[in-house]
Amino acid sequence: MYALVEIKGKQYKAEEGKKILVDLLHMEEGESFETDKVLAVVDGDAAKFGTPYVEGAKVEATVGPVKKGEKVKVYKFHRRKGYRRTQGHREKYQEITFSKVQG
Q: Which among 4, 27, 84, 87 could bridge 40 via Cys, Cβ 3.0 to 4.6 Å?
């Protein structure tokens, strides 16, 4: 059984015991996280799809540590002007572990 869940505007596949990285939630490590923004629930051959969300379905997860993504380099350049700028950053993500999928 799995569900398609919306977390901070992005969609993820939620299965019990699965760990994923989501955008930073600003929650402490070990806190419980629950969402009812479930777009679809699939259990074998049976599938329920919401318009936009499935009624009565929810997903519970546990918040894990904060991790950084890969470095992104931003390079700006104007030809013949001597203008060159390099900037970089690393996006922060939070690991969550799905503990329960109800549908």
A: 4
CB 98, CB 59: distance < 8 Å: yes
Please state, in angstroms and as integers, the Cα–Cα distance from residue 19 to each residue in 48, 79, 96, 99, following that order.
Answer: 23, 45, 6, 10
Residues 6+ apart with CB under 8 A from 35: 5, 6, 7, 58, 59, 61
% of the chain beyond a pLDDT of 90? 98
Cα 18 to chain center, whole Å? Answer: 12
The predicted-structure confidence for 54-102, as pLDDT tens digits, reads as follows 999 999 999 999 999 999 999 999 999 999 999 999 999 999 999 999 9
